[in-house]
Design goal:
The protein is α/β, with parallel strands linked by helices. Helices cover about 50% and strands about 15% of the residues. The two termini are about 60 Å apart. The structure holds adenosine-5'-triphosphate and magnesium ion.
Length: about 450
């Protein structure tokens, strides 16, 4: 939007901006500008400062109030610094003094737009990261998960070593990341190392780094993960698979916060918070002698145990919703009653990861239908025997009116029984396994409140 009370300048600028690919709307005064601002979300507003009636500063102010991301430019006719300063105070991104060349205007404009693009991109990335790793991003409303999140809030503040245990797919890595992104260390790196994915011979160098020629293939000097995580968090996944020899070295690094790169004797000191994870029973490994007891206690300063999914079925509906949104972001999808009942009854040996895979597969198989049915689920879940046919009821956070809800189910069943028997009350009562007199009584009550 180009606002100026001088028709000649306004027309000329509009024309030239149009040549450069802008879509220009002209306003001949401040009043008109405010009116247009009500109607369109402009990307850019360029306005003269001194105008009779509503002046440019007011235009800028309402533009910024309504569209905080808008690029606002001021043209100062009198070249007074004071006017320009006032406009900037009211939110203008930049100003240009009359008389000016069109190219000068283009230059300031492009600068402001670039700035705007960077700011909005940065905000977007930050928001995404923060949202993803807020404790709120850990989906789950079961009692064990709520208690867990509470515990995480407390431990995130400290720098103590944490040991996260739980079966495969329960969310150990999700939890480790959330701790980091909610801790005072979040501005620094979250470095992960999966101890089982790296050959034993290379693991030490991965952890502590190496110098040139330390071993065959060590062509240069490299930082290890401990160094990369300086002032941040190091996530040691599958820590139970580490050899006893390396356990010794890890113990020292944890105790002294210092170590040497492989092939070097210079000591390096770091400030790192360590979160370790394992799905093996470390206590048992200690008893069997395959895991060092001292290292176990060093790692297990704060134990966090993730319960298997089968012990927290209340988390299944919100997780399903979360994964449906993830795999079908554009179309809203849901599960049939029978499908959700089967998910609730299944044992989930692969926990949340297995559930995630099942939903991804079902979304793919549903071929655009909004409802996922039992047939879309993996065979092992379809095979779950259905003994209790209790309907699945969404149970809101703040509870629900149980008597009212039960009454509505009763009403529905009675209507359906009567429909099926063409209104024959004797046969309907038989179908519902109640006495005729009970049915009549219930019908009276239904009649009364419906
Ligand atoms: N509470 C949760 N909310 C949302 N997503 C979750 C949750 N728990 C797990 N997930 C998802 O489930 C998958 C498995 O989680 P994660 O990798 O953290 O499990 P894990 O315990 O580290 O498994 P493994 O022992 O096999 O390494 C991931 O895709 C993760 O995003
Ligand atoms: Mg993992």
């Amino acid at each position: 939007m180009f606002v100026d009370d001088e028709p000649a300048l306004r027309g000329l600028m509009a024309e030239r901006l149009t040549e450069r690919g802008f879509e220009v709307v002209e306003a001949e005064n401040g009043e008109k500008a405010l009116e247009l601002l009500e109607q369109f979300a402009f990307d850019i507003v360029i306005t003269d400062l001194r105008m009779p009636g509503i002046d440019g500063a007011r235009v800028i102010q309402s533009a910024k109030e309504r569209y905080p991301g808008i690029v606002a430019m001021v043209i100062t006719g009198y070249g007074t610094v004071k006017d320009a300063v006032e406009a900037i105070k009211r939110g203008a991104d930049d100003f240009i003094a009359k008389p000016f060349q069109f190219d000068e205007l283009m230059h300031v404009l492009q600068k402001a737009r670039e700035q705007q693009r960077l700011t909005s991109e940065l905000k977007h990335v930050q928001a995404q990261l923060e949202e993803k790793y807020q404790f709120g991003g850990i989906v789950g409303r079961s009692r064990p998960m709520k208690e867990l999140v509470q515990q995480l809030e407390t431990v995130a503040r400290s720098s103590s070593t944490i040991l996260v245990t739980g079966e495969t797919g329960t969310g150990k890595e999700v939890v480790a990341r959330s701790i980091h992104y909610n801790s005072p260390r979040r501005a620094n790196r979250f470095v992960t190392l999966n101890c089982s994915a790296i050959p034993e011979t290379l693991l030490e160098a991965e952890l502590f780094g190496h110098v040139r020629g330390a071993f065959t293939g060590a062509v240069g000097t490299r930082q290890g993960r401990f160094e990369q995580a300086h002032k941040g968090t190091l996530f040691l996944d599958e820590v139970g698979t580490m050899s006893v020899g390396l356990q010794m070295k890890l113990l020292r690094a944890l105790q002294e916060r210092e170590f040497e790169r492989v092939g070097d004797n210079q000591t390096i000191k770091v400030d790192v918070r360590v979160i370790a994870a394992t799905n093996s029973d470390l206590a048992r490994m200690v008893a069997e002698g395959s895991f060092r007891e001292d290292l176990y206690y060093r790692l297990n300063v704060i134990p966090i145990e993730l319960p298997p999914l089968r012990d927290r079925p209340d988390d299944i509906p919100p997780l399903v919703k979360h994964f449906l949104e993830k795999f079908s972001p554009d179309t809203e999808m849901h599960l049939s009653q029978d499908a959700i009942r089967r998910l609730m009854a299944y044992g989930w040996p692969g926990n949340v990861r297995q559930l995630e895979n099942a939903i991804e597969r079902a979304v793919a198989l549903s071929g655009g239908r909004p409802e996922i049915t039992t047939a879309d689920l993996p065979p092992e879940i379809q095979a779950v025997p259905q003994s209790i046919a209790t309907p699945f009821v969404e149970f809101p956070e703040d509870g629900l009116d149980m008597p009212g809800y039960l009454a509505s189910i009763e009403r529905d069943l009675i209507h359906r029984a009567l429909d099926r028997t063409q209104g024959n009350r004797n046969r309907a009562a038989d179908l519902l396994r109640i006495k005729r007199t009970t049915l009549v009584e219930k019908l009276k009550r239904i009649g009364a409140d419906s």
